[in-house]
Structure formats: C-alpha cells, structure tokens
Amino acid sequence: MSARQDQTAEHLIQYLRQLAPQVRRRLLAELERLHLLGEDIPHSEPLIAALRAEFRNTGQNHYRVGNPSRYFFEPLEPVLVDSAPERANSGQIARGSLAPIWSLVTEQLLRSMAADYIANATKVISADKQAEARQMAQAFQKKVLTSLNGQLGSAEGAARIRDGLMAYTSSHATFDDLKKMLRYLDMQRELDDFGRALAPKIARLEGASLDKVLGQLSTLRAKRADALPFALTILAKHLEIPWELLSVAIAPADDRAAARIAAGPFAIAVSMVLDQIEENHHLLLFALRNNRPVRAKEIVGEIYRIEQALRAQIELKGSGWARRLDDLMTEVQAAVAAEISSIPGDHRHLTHILESPRLRPDDSFGHKVGHMFGKGWDVVAGLLAGHADTTNRRDGAS
C-alpha cells in the first residue's frame, strides 16, 4: 500500500472512531459480507483489520473466538462456510450471518436475558471453565429458539424478524440463514451422531467407505429427510476431495443418465458440487484481482478437475445440471480471458485457446485453461509480478 493510501485509510479509521460501537459493529459485518461477495471496496482491508482488532480486544458483541457468542453459535460449526450469505446453499450457513443474528438477539429480541448471559458467560470463559460456558450457552440458546420459533410462526412475526435483521445488514439472505440455523439446531443430535460416525478424513469415497456413508445417509434420511443437505455439507468437509460428494448421488442410481440420478435420494449432492465450482470462481476473481497468479493457477486446476468429474461421471446432456455447468464455465472463461487480455501484446498468443465461444462436452474449457496455465502461466505470473512491483514503486513515489 502506498503512503497516500495509508494516509487515506488512517483518516477513515479516525472517522470510524467517532461512530457509536453499535454502528461500527454493523459496518464490520457489512464490509465482511461485501468482501466475501468479491466487491472491490477501496481501503476496505485496513478498515476490516482495524474493526476486527477493536472487537477482539474489547470483547464486545461480535462473533469472535472466546466471546459468549462463540459458544452460542458453536454447534453450527460443521455447516458454517466463509462465503457470503447469498451464496450459502440449503446445507450451509454463512459465518457472516452470525454477527447480524447475534445483534438481533442481544439488542432487540432478548436484551435483558442476553445481558445476563453475556455477563455470566464472560466470567466462566475468563476462568477457562469451558464445560460450564457451554451449558450456559445451551440454556440461553433454548430461550432464543423458543422466542424465534414463536415469532416466525406468524407472518407478522416473521416480518418483524426480517426487518430487525435489516438494521444490521443489507443482505436479505441472512434471514434465510437464521431459518436454517433453527432447523439445524432442531436436529442437532441426529447430525452430531452422523458426523461422529464419519472418519475424520476420508481419502477416497469408494468401495466399503462409500457403502458405509450411503447407509448412514439413508438412516438419517429415514428419520429426518430435511437433515440431508446439512449432512452432505458435513460429509464434504470430511472428504479429502470434496467433489467426490458426487458419488453419493450417482451410486444409488447405478446409471450415468442425469434423469436417473436426479430421481435418486441424494441428487442434491450434484448441485452442491456445482456450488463448489461457483465458489471457486469467486475465489479465482479475488486471486486475479489481487495479482496472485500462483493461487489463481491452483483454483483453475481445481475447477477443471471438478468439471471433468461431472462430465465423466454423469451423462449431462440436456439436463439443468449441464446448463448450469456450461454457464459457470463460461463465467470462468470470461474471467481468465479478461486477465489474459490485459497481458502486453507480445504475449497475446496465449489467448488462442480461449477463442471458442461455446464449450464442447468432449473438450472442456477446464482442459484448455489447464493447458494454458501449464504452457504459459510462468510468463503470465512474471508479468503480473512485474506489474505489481512497478505499481508499488510508482505508488511509493507518489
């Protein structure tokens, strides 16, 4: 960062210090959400760092490790993801939704009960009495769930909760995360049992390992069908290769036809693997925007492997999955093509593999991009690094 940028960021931080702590907490939640969405907000990184340090050091009501809120939300950890609430699927809860939910509970819903919980929990946490802290969190959690479920039972109450959340975030998806939180906590015991029965890390989801997982999923689905998306999220976190989640959708069908797989009990796993491509696409945009070519190369390689697995294991032609995959890969293609087009003219020959406007199932875009990176990324990386160095030197001199 240049001296001028440092000065601008410091002025913004000084301005923030004049705002009420509640406003600063809301701003932090919103900046984190926009950051995860890939929004390029000037000077946001030092602001986020400063706000995080403030709430970490003061112990105020932001979701941080060691705070009472951390113990309150701890049961959700198996399904928490670092993506924006807008991108959290039916089996995921965005970590960024926790701060607005916590603010709603402590500042609007149950203020006096929350104040008592925070005061008492802070004492036992400081004394390192973790078991007691968790017991307190569970007791407060039950009160919160009773209140939320009661209000969400009517249209008027749901509208109040939705409007209440909007005081802390502009993301409408946070309301969906709140409802998912209630569903998850309602079936927490079954999901905890499912997670404990899984191996800590599953190297390959095949053979006896796959049969065991399918049995566990079938048992859980018979008890609580609505637990399945959460269970698949938990399973994916145990897989060394997350996109092998495909296997639980494909195996019961014993067929590569998309229609047969879609009619199976675990078809949602295919959509979740497509979600992995979408999330990697956002990570790619972030890496390219921040001149991180090595990381970008890794992400594109992962996208290619997921795409290749989908096309190899499922007869996608004509399916909704095929359309979504093609759309996602077109977006990835556009991101890489835009980056390559910024390369000086002497190296434009690298773009020839991106010229086809349509993707052919037997010649995936991922393969083309993988080839490009394999043959030319060293040149691209050097150019980007050189560009970054030149920019830094120019900024430093300004």
Brief characterization of the structure:
It is built from 18 helices and two strands. Helix 5 (98-109) packs across helix 6, helix 15 (268-289) runs antiparallel to helix 16 (293-313) and helix 17 (320-341) runs parallel beside helix 18 (365-397). A two-stranded parallel ribbon has the order 1-2.
> In what order do the strands lie side by side in the largest sheet?
1-2
Percent in helix: 55-70%
Biggest sheet, open or closed, and with what strands and sense?
2 strands, parallel
Q: What is the 3D shape? A: globular
SS elements, strand count: 2
- Count every helix, treating DSSP H or I runs of 4 or more residues as helices: 18
Give the distance, in angstroms, between the N- and C-terminal Cα atoms.
11 Å
**Residues in β-strands, percent:** under 5%
- From the helix content, strand content and strand pairing, which structural class follows? mainly alpha
Mean of all residue-level pLDDT scores = 81
Query: H/E element string?
Result: HHHHEEHHHHHHHHHHHHHH
Poorly predicted runs are 57-65, 347-363, 367-398
Backbone CA Rg: 24 Å
